[in-house]
Amino acid sequence: MKSTCYKFLVYRVFNHRVSRGSAEETEKKPVSILTSDTSVHPLFSLWFIKKRAYRLLLLLIIPCLLAISATGQGNSIKVMTFNIRYSNPEDGVNSWTNRKELLTKTLDRQSPDFIGMQEVLKRQLDYLLENLPQYQAIGVGRDDGKTGGEYVPVIYKHEHFQMLDNGTFWLSSTPADTASVGWDAALTRICTWGKFLEKNTGKEIFFLNTHFDHMGKTARAESARLILDFIEKETKGQPVILTGDFNCSPDEEPYRVLTCPGTSLSDACRVAGNEQEFLEGTFNGWGNEKEPKRIDMVFYNGGFVATSYEVLIIKDGDMFISDHWPVLVLLKAVF
What we know:
By secondary structure, the protein is an alpha+beta fold.
């Protein structure tokens, strides 16, 4: 059976025909929207082909643009580490009640994909998630593995990332023991980890967040070794991001443990920052710290490369956003 090729015409046009053996002027007849007539004006054919080509081009480009905007930074991930200071009524003008709105507005404006927070109490976490609905969180309280004590939550944009697995281990010689205190530490310390799927690309990453002890020198070094051991055994070479308040500066042993050759971890500040930023303190002590140290850091393995680094100095009059400045890093995915 002979098939008929139909042409889809968007506008009604006139087809010019000349009668054979006649000197009459061209007869103008309307062409049907659906026609089997193969005599189409060449100018219209060219216009029609171009329009179809533009549409096809748009169909190809739009998915690419959507992929680029999936995390807001193309194939990069915006990461923040931020010790928000636990809610303490004795902080006066810097109390959580006064600071919390400034903090949520800052997070909303900066819009990181992941935030590794420290010193977060349950009521603070509830407030943040209630006022920042674009985020979800993983983590437990360090005192009981449930809701007691400080969290070190991993907060993430659930529109872009799906949490596949997560857990907590205690920074001690018995990391599976809830509320265990390690070595010479003064307090219970933990590390929260999560395995995430980037929805747009289907790629998986591990994100770890921690808070080292402020007193125990041995505890800080051993905590660094414990985290490296977890990364080596559990992540199986997958991309890793590690954030935290490490309570140590780059010239101390825990930092050297984390960044020594063979660990595969890089310091985002050392890669993307400058010499001044490398020395810039992140603990401000409400403005009372005479020699602020850089103790809040972002590390990553070979799955990423740091392309920008910034310490966010944020105050509202005499009120500080926290006794630590938030640190913002852009990591370009190379996996």
